[in-house]
Every structure is written in C-alpha cells, then in structure tokens.
Amino acid sequence: MKEYSTNLTDKQWQVIKDILEPQLRKRKHSLRSIINAIFYLNKTSHHVDLDRGIDGNKKIKGRKEHIVVDTLGLPMSVVVHQANTHDSVGAHDVIDMMKAKFPKLKKILADGGYKGRKIRDAVKDKLNAEFKVVLRPEESSKKFSVLPLRWIVERSFSWLENFRRIAMDYEFYSDTAVAMVQIAFCKLMLNKIFDTN
User: Fold this and answer.
1) 66: which residues sit within 8 A by CB, 6+ positions away?
2) Per-residue model confidence as pLDDT tens digits over 145-190
C-alpha cells in the first residue's frame, strides 16, 4: 500500500498492534494496512481499495454530533443523530451512556443548545451531578463573560473538522458516524503521544 501522511508510524503501530491483533492469523491484507486505510478514509473521505487505489464518496444525510470530553479534550462519550432533531434528544442519549460508563461524575458543562430544565433534571436524577450551561457572549445578557472550560469542547470539535469524512458527513448510519469520530480521536491521540502532525 502507498505511504500516506495518515499512515501509522512504526512506533504508533508497536503500541496498538497487540491490542488490535493479540492472536496472529492469516489475512489477505495486513491489519496495519487496513488500519492505515481506515485512517486515510476518515481524513480524506476517499475510499482506499487495498488492491486498486482510491475512490470518492458522496454526502448522504446531515448529522449532529454530541461529544462529551474530559478536561484534556479526550472523548468520553459520542452520540450522533439527525441534524434536524433537537439537541435534547442527543443529550438524553449521552446522559444514559454517561450513567453506565462514568457514574461518579460531579459536574457537566454544556453549551446553549442544551438549555432546559428536563436536561438539568435528567443529569441530577441519573448522574447526581451538577449541570451548568455556559453561554457564549452573544447568548449572554453580559457583553463579556469568561467561558470556563468551554474552549476544551470547542477545540475538540475543531480537531474533528480536520477529518473530511466527519466534516462532510458521508455516513449513512449514525453508528458509522460515531465510529468515525472515535477513529479520528484514536488517530489524534496517537499523533499527540508521538508528537507527529
């Protein structure tokens, strides 16, 4: 397979190969080539046919991503739904996922799209956590206000805009869109660990 900038480095592959392939088995293509093809697809939105080359794709449906990140900007939970659905739908799905994965959360910050008593009450009832909506200055009654920790989420979404497959929303199924977000964060973390671009 051709070398692309999205390919795993040798050091990155050494870290993840035992996680992905604990038992070696015979394959037509190496697992590393398959992972490289997935990273390339996610970054460029072009399909990589391991035998023949590259093929483009078309946008199908609009999606909305709900991503919960920790204080480092790393994903804790991802939900994707139709863009024409209100944010509260995804919020309740995220709350349910967070209850199962992170039952000891103490505080959740959200943007203005998550305003409302139902969401705040759901966070209190299901997670027993504080829920605070952090408004942008144009949403706030004040001209200037500090936006504590909101930049972490905004930065995480900004990172995802560098992955064309996510930014252009090529996925037909929401589950596939969630997987593409998770794959993007895997590549981002590997790049940060090994300080590559």
Assistant:
1) 77, 78, 79, 80, 81, 87, 90, 91, 93, 94
2) 556 567 777 788 888 888 888 877 777 777 888 888 889 999 998 9
CB 155 within 8 A of CB 161: no
Q: Could you tell me which of 59, 56, 119, 67 has the C-alpha nearest to residue 88?
A: 119
127-130, long-range: CB < 8 A, 24+ apart: 127/95, 127/98, 127/99, 127/103, 129/105, 130/106
Q: Do 112 and 131 touch, CB atoms closer than 8 A?
A: no
Q: Is it the case that residue 63 has pLDDT exceeding 50?
A: yes
Q: Residue 187: which residues within 8 A CB-CB, separation 6 or more?
A: 6, 39, 42, 43
In whole angstroms, give the CA distance from residue 38 to residue 16. Answer: 15
Q: What is the pLDDT of residue 10?
A: 92
**Residue whose entry in the numeric block shows the structure tokens 């399909």:** 47
9 pLDDT tier (thresholds 50, 70, 90)? very high
Give 61's contacts (C-beta < 8 A, 6+ positions apart). Answer: 82, 169, 171, 172
In angstroms, the Cα distances linking 158 to 63, 73, 111, 163, 167 are 16, 11, 15, 10, 10
Report how far apart, in Å, the C-alpha atoms of 142 and of each of 112, 131, 137, 138, 149 are.
Answer: 15, 21, 7, 8, 18
Strand partners, 55: 47
